[in-house]
Amino acid sequence: MRWNLMVLASCLAVAGCVGNSMSEQQDANVQSSLQYDSVPCDQLLAQRNGLAQQYHLSVDAKPSFSNPAMGFGPFTPDMRSKAKRDADQASGKIDAMNRSITRRECGKPAKQNKLALPS
Hints:
Elements (H helix, E strand, L loop, with lengths): L1 H17 L3 H7 L12 H14 L27 H23 L15
Helix pairs in contact: 3-4
């Protein structure tokens, strides 16, 4: 009976960590860049630069991932501060914006579409 209670208590403790695990929260920081494709380039560049400045991040920020012990990632509770979680989420947004900027070639001179006769 005592053994069963110990196993049950440890299972409940581990189950409580699964909904708010570090790896789950860090995976949520990775965002799709497609959501930024409808934003005009100049506005997107301004949003990215403002977000980087607000959280004191580089404009080339990428989401970071911790390396928990093998197999314990889903069970490691997220112990980061709110400021750190917000900065990590902002780095995920900045990375998604950068991928959209790169794909759409924002900030580069427009290609010439005119046909010119050789001289």
